[in-house]
Specification:
Blueprint lengths: L1 E3 L4 H16 L1 H6 L1 H9 L3 E8 L10 H4 L6 E7 L4 E3 L12 E7 H8 L1
Antiparallel strand pairs: 1-2, 2-5, 3-4, 3-5
Amino acid sequence: MCSIFFKSPILDVLEDLIEHLVEKSYLWKKSNPKYLNFITKHRGYSICEVYLEESCDLIGKSIKESKLSSIEIKVLSIDKGYEIINFPKPYYIFQENDKLMVYGNTKNIKNKFY
């Protein structure tokens, strides 16, 4: 079983409202146009932490074998507790208790890990 932590739907709505208000702010547009474009172009995508438990189907597979990229999920880092592996290579083999930082399509992340 893989565990993933998501914000509640209410927080998502509030976040969208705040983002919309900030997006319309003159000062924000003037001071940070590149960041604003980055945020608004990536709706539906998020960064999430995923804990790999004993029963997770990824354990024993490499990143490449997992085919996560085919469902728009990229592994950004792996926290092993004693070591953090940033931008792991495709041949990295997932192990129990790995904590993954992933970026990707939010719906696909929920479907894969929830």
